[in-house]
């Protein structure tokens, strides 16, 4: 029988061996904070993994569960609507109201005219309907002529809203709109279109180039930001990713006509979060900000777990390594700009919406007079 001292010694030896292995094969590169996507290189992985298989029989949560809170008069992408080049899907909750308004303001400022599908998040143990403040914001946004949007309610248990909500929202979105769009963008409420970029023009260019998937590198090492049990569940050697950069799950673009990116990245990612949330995407012991005493020596160099972003990065890294170079492009004109703000800033944002609607009303009145 192995003593506690012997077991501890073995754990330390394994950890030191892992550290030596990383020293030999190369550690994290130093990346400047202002590095562009083209400056960040993801090394090609050596092998293709069996988990990258087309997932064609995903069971969707179902369109029947969609509760529509409202739609703008310009939104026509329904059962009888027209196909669009690119749609944008996002989700927000009471915790991210300021960021949400910033996103929609940015879409107006950058002249995005595509369909926008919004999911208002709510735990299933909350009140039976959204708050008055949330509905007030939704009502105002739906009146903005420049936003062609529809808003659904998305009710989930807390564990899914915390760890796996993004995969579940994207799945519900695809169940309704996959056949009605040429491509789509997922954007967190913190997302914004970069200056000098037009999202629809960029999407058209990517479609013409037959790019299947586009995402942005973060410059963080995937191995450090992914719990070992996630790698174990997916059946891959985590140390193959010791020089692989993480991709941002805050915004990504997917081609719905050329579907390799959809089948080999997005659908397996959805399957991980929807069907195996607490085993694959958020395994036991995984935390975004674990305490030092919660980190096991044998898990080195793991530091924190990024849930949906960690899993998405694994699938993208393998897709990049094992498909044509032209099928993936880094960056498509969006970036992350977090700004949770405070109650005063929220008040300012609501005043901004009122001002926008007032100007819109006055413009319409002038047109009628003329």
From TrEMBL:
Residues spanning the signal sequence: 1-26
UniProt keywords, alphabetically: Signal
Full protein name: Uncharacterized protein
């Amino acid at each position: 029988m192995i003593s506690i001292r012997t077991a501890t010694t073995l754990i330390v030896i394994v950890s030191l061996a892992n550290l030596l292995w990383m020293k030999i094969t190369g550690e994290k590169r130093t990346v400047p904070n202002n590095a562009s996507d083209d400056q960040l290189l993801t090394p090609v992985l050596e092998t293709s993994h069996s988990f990258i298989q087309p997932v064609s029989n995903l069971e969707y949560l179902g369109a029947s569960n969609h509760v529509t809170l409202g739609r703008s008069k310009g939104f026509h992408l329904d059962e009888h609507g027209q196909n669009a080049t690119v749609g944008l899907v996002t989700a927000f909750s009471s915790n991210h109201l300021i960021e949400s308004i910033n996103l929609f303001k940015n879409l107006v400022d950058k002249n995005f005219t595509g369909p926008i599908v919004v999911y208002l998040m709510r735990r299933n143990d909350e009140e039976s309907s959204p708050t008055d403040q949330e509905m007030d914001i939704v009502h105002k946004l739906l009146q903005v002529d420049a936003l062609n949007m529809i808003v659904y309610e998305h009710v989930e248990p807390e564990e899914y809203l915390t760890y796996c909500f993004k995969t579940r929202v994207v799945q519900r979105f695809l169940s309704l709109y996959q056949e009605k769009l040429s491509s789509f963008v997922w954007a967190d409420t913190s997302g914004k279109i970069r200056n000098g970029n037009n999202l629809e023009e960029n999407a058209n260019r990517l479609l013409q180039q037959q790019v299947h998937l586009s995402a942005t590198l973060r410059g963080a090492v995937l191995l450090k930001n992914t719990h070992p049990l996630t790698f174990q569940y997916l059946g891959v050697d985590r140390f193959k990713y010791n020089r692989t950069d993480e991709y941002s799950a805050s915004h990504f673009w997917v081609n719905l006509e050329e579907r390799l990116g959809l089948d080999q990245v997005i659908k397996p990612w959805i399957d991980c979060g929807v069907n195996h949330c607490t085993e694959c995407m958020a395994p036991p012991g995984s935390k975004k900000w674990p305490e030092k005493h919660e980190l096991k020596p044998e898990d080195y160099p793991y530091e924190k777990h990024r849930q949906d972003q960690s899993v998405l990065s694994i699938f993208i890294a393998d897709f990049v390594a094992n498909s044509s170079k032209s099928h993936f492009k880094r960056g498509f004109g969006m970036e992350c700009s977090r700004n949770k703000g405070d109650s005063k800033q929220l008040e300012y944002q609501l005043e901004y919406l009122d001002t926008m609607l007032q100007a819109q009303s006055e413009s319409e009145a002038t047109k009628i007079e003329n």
